[in-house]
Model the fold of this input.
Amino acid sequence: MKIEVKENNVRIDTYLIGILNESRSYIQKMNKDGYIKVNDKEVKNSYMVRENDIITVLEYKVETDILPEKMDLDIVYEDDDVIVINKKNGVVVHPSSGHLSHTLVNGLMYHCKQLSDVNGKTRPGIVHRIDAYTTGLLMVAKNNKAHNILAKQLSDKTTTRTYIALVWGNIKNDTGTIDAPIGRSKLDRKKMAVTLENSKEAITHFKVLKRYEKATLISVNLETGRTHQIRVHMAYIGHPVVNDPVYGNHKLIDDTGQCLHAKTLGFIHPTKKTYMEFTSELPECFTNILDKFA
Done:
């Protein structure tokens, strides 16, 4: 992987946290072991990146194997090509450094004999993902052919992805579109933000379902799929997702995470070539908070 730096005076380990989605200690170990170079030279972890630096990140093997684990999976649909999972609250989708067990991937590896390996050994079958504390539907590929076809549909924006979110405040318009690019936050590399620098196009459509005194229930359709897109966009327009511990600006109601649920998922089946659509009900962790606003 080659990365062209767009900032100045940021430590390289800090700069790479969000890009690689790994911890600082993991990145520091990668660098120490010679897997990170700047302008084809090894640098210390304290190196301050400069604009137009070229960072090269070599493939770094995870020292510990990812092991299958028996897990109670909520399988909405399954055939020889695809599995549709209704992910539970708090479940991390795939392993990462320091988090090699109890993920959805561990459970899928126990359930299936074969999953796609397009995204490497730590993300078998994973075509797209949702946050640990976002619940709902995601598709998993059992083979590489299915994976590539489904990934292209995501890229071509032909999939259907509808979320339900409870956001703070009263949204006046019945519908709206947020078209604002998202990139890594300069203030906190672990967070995303609306920014014009080193960002990608991000488009979110929303529709008001119900208004409460202090919050609004909305449905959200994604035209793009950026990291934390809904959470960042809703916070950007002054209506952060209720109970969001990262992008919210209100006191947390409990520790179950943000009120965000991937309710509807639709795609063209990679083999059958027919459109399939699935829905899931709001989980108890969401409805428990929703009841407090009724």
